[in-house]
Sequence to fold (126 residues):
Amino acid sequence: MIHAEVNVKKWAKQFNAQEEQVFKVSEDVLLYVASNLYVKIIDYTPVGNPSLWKFKAPAGYQPGTLKKAWTLDFSNNNKQAIIANDESYAVRVEYGWSSQAPYGMMRKGIAQFPDLLAQAAQRYKF
Fold:
């Protein structure tokens, strides 16, 4: 016959401590990955160069507007990261409108996600 006893209170205390640690690490990983992805996306965002354009730049055009418009917000108690750009032409640039960023900015950045996650795993030892 095999017999085992479990101290439920002790087990629950250990489980809760480990659960808190997992949530803390997951928040740290999200912050690390999202912040690094945000920086990469900004780096991949072209600064308008009217000499490359087929048409004349609109009146009042300021190079760098698209690059400056990126935002990074955390919501849902830091369980969700949102990287966004509200410039009206951001989607066009993302999908090939710019010869300087033919593969977009977000798509190119998101392709780096596995590497960023691996870096986070190394950094946070999980």
In short: Residues 8-44 form the longest helix (37 residues). The mean pLDDT is 87. The two ends are 38 Å apart (CA to CA).
